[in-house]
């Protein structure tokens, strides 16, 4: 396993997407409200969109038309092309794709070493 220092912790604002390189892999990082740092592959598994142009938000749900609720306990990374939402906790898509499959982002282990963010590939 290789360890890559990708950025400083102070350069990761809460709730934002920060692109970085971990060796030859393009990844995206995000810092949660609790301070945890998440790292995922930088391309959407649906059609390859660059996730660095996506956004982080709370999960929105609806059981009936025109009744939307917001789940602040679940943050998602939203793809910029087709709006696929992936859980920041697991990397799994919130809903199935058009073939009924639940896509999943590749997750990377993250370590904090002082003020350095280190990604293990």
**Strand numbers in spatial order across the main sheet:** 1-9-8-4-3-2
Instruction: State the fourth-level CATH superfamily.
Output: Rieske [2Fe-2S] iron-sulphur domain
Q: Could you give the distance between the termini?
A: 6 Å
Order of helices and strands: EEEEEEEEE
Which fold name fills CATH's third level, the topology?
Rieske Iron-sulfur Protein
Main beta-sheet strand count, sense and barrel state? 6 strands, antiparallel
What structural class results from the helix and strand content?
A: mainly beta
Mean pLDDT, to the nearest integer, reads 92
The number of helical elements comes to 0
* Total strands: 9
Provide an overview of this structure.
The structure is a single chain. By secondary structure, this protein is an all-beta fold. The protein has a single domain, classed as Rieske [2Fe-2S] iron-sulphur domain (Rieske Iron-sulfur Protein). Helix content is 0%, strand content 50%. It has strands spanning 3-8, 18-22, 25-31, 37-41, 55-64, 67-78, 85-87, 107-113, 116-120. A hairpin with a 2-residue loop joins strand 8 and strand 9 (116-120).
Topology:
Elements: E1 3-8, E2 18-22, E3 25-31, E4 37-41, E5 55-64, E6 67-78, E7 85-87, E8 107-113, E9 116-120
Antiparallel strand pairs: 1-9, 2-3, 3-4, 4-8, 5-6, 6-7, 8-9
């Amino acid at each position: 396993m290789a360890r890559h220092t990708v950025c400083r912790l102070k350069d990761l604002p809460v709730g934002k997407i920060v692109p970085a390189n971990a060796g030859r892999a393009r990844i995206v990082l995000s810092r949660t409200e609790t301070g945890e740092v998440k790292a995922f592959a930088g391309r959407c598994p649906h059609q390859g969109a660059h996730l660095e142009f996506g956004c982080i938000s709370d999960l929105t749900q609806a059981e009936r038309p025109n009744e939307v609720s917001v789940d602040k306990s679940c943050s998602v990374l939203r793809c910029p092309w087709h709006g696929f939402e992936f859980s920041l906790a697991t990397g799994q898509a919130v809903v199935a794709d058009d073939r009924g499959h639940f896509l999943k982002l590749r997750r990377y282990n993250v370590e904090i070493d002082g003020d350095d963010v280190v990604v293990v590939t």
